[in-house]
Input
Amino acid sequence: MIERPLTDWLPLTMKEVEKRGWDEVDIVLVSGDAYVDHPAFGTAVIGRIMESEGFRVAIIAQPNWKDDLRDFKKFGRPKYFFGVTAGCMDSMVNHYTANKRLRSNDSYTPGGEAGFRPDYATIVYTKILKELYPDVPVLLGGIEASLRRVTHYDYWQDRLMPSILVDAGADMLVYGMGEQPLREILKLVRQGVPFTSMRNINQVAFLHDADTELRDYNNWESVELASHELCLADKIRYAANFKIVEVESNKWQANRILQQVGDKVLVINPPFKTMDEAEIDKSFDLPYTRLPHPKYKKRGPIPAYEMIKFSVNMHRGCFGGCSFCTISAHQGKFVASRSEASVLKEVDEITKHPEFKGYISDLGGPSANMYKMKGKDESICARCQSPSCIHPVICSNLDTSHKPLTEIYRKVDANPNIKKAFVGSGVRYDLLVDDFNKNNADGNHDEYMEQLVTRHVSGRLKVAPEHTSDDTLRVMRKPSFKYFKLFKQKYDKIQEKYNLKQPLIPYFISSHPGCEEQDMANLAAETKDLGFQLEQVQDFTPTPMTVAEVIYYSGVHPYTLKPVKTAKTREEKQAQNKYFFWYKPEYKDWIRNRLNKLNRPDLADRLLGSAKKENTGKPKFSGHYSGKKKR
Output
């Protein structure tokens, strides 16, 4: 293997800066992740964009925040600003389980080692930088900053927190996928415009003195939220705020959002319109090495990189709008798709990787099968305020053709260097069920499904029904479980036709808002009847800027302000989770006693067999949940 020169990566040390012949650095990026120069890692994307605009960029990856802070000082004062991100995950989701137990590993650190980033990393890093370099602006970005840009509930402290700008003391925040606002900021920075004058850029947030007039820009209308202080006093006001934030975050012609917090006004400018094909291609076609920085070689592999190094992300965004999911809150509900040429070019790049053995691990995106899907008449989309394009029904204006995806699968298959290209991302099965999705006049969904099942399943296919109870599914913004059953029938027929044995792997969540204990017992019984034995399952975690988080904290649905019952105590959550494991001997007595107390001996018999004679029959196959799905 030919060693690449160190200058192929953005510099991590002063020695690397000097190797490039630079006498100073324009921008320093501080990240909670190790530096992997790959388009799936935000710091690499942002750094490469800055480089493409002619800026000299250096990266401080996973700095030590506990010592003399030498990591933060190694490049000195940047010419323009610091950029700060916690990394590819919210640092608290990264650190803690749904039961608030500290995780023992970190997928974004060499060797998977935990402990290389602080809790609330964005805040910790920014405070240190402001102490060391008080006059250098700090720009926040990444998922932690994006989802905490407004008053939000923090599950780990069990309290409302203000915009992360308040606690961090940063100068500005870019929310969502940051390429478009970043390019605007860079143009102004080069012209010498201070951050305090950058007030008319889309998709940024900043704090403004409440006693100073706030100018109007770009003919934006402004909508005011209940203040942070009002939210602290009244959970219903907080819930009502969320509806406004979610609606405005997903509109093409959105309003500017204002919220009073102390003696400041939080200003959130409207988002950019979704990136077009040329814009998103430009981001993916930058000169990434597609490798971790060489400094990590002796510390072991980076698990997150190992998982995606032979995968291709074909699109961004998700129009599902699921209540527990942060994808649309960060990436938007409208899907931005790369061109076929850009995707095929990346496949070619992967085949040159020194460790490539001919297998693509994933041709996908947030949901595997939303590539190239958008509104038939985009003027209707421009006026739309719905948080989901497929709940409670599929929008009649949504083009759900799977033809472009089927074609790209076939073209990747035709590449002589590819033995197999798998789909590792979760498939949105409801788009493939004719009873739910009526837009299948030319049979393209069936053609796609046959291509997928016969050519692109790596042993098993992941889908996410999430629950079996219609009441819970409505709160989740997911379709009825009956559509999963119809999908399974369709899937099994193709398997039978081609004599395949590739189990479906369904994802389910316990203790989600709107789910009661009986619902979990029903879920266990229904999945048992279908032949599933669930081994690893997900307990609900309330993450900022989701409908489910608002319900968990406030007790009401933000769109109706009506109460929704939610399991909140550890005991309630563990009780729901135990039903997944009805087949384990140590839980059988507990389940029977519990269901008898709930006056549901019928469910106990269905799950465990009659009390006199336990059913020892084994299900047809096991359903595993890998725990890797991002929510």
Observations:
- The first strand starts at residue 27 and ends at 31.
- The chain has three domains: 6-207, 310-498, 503-610.
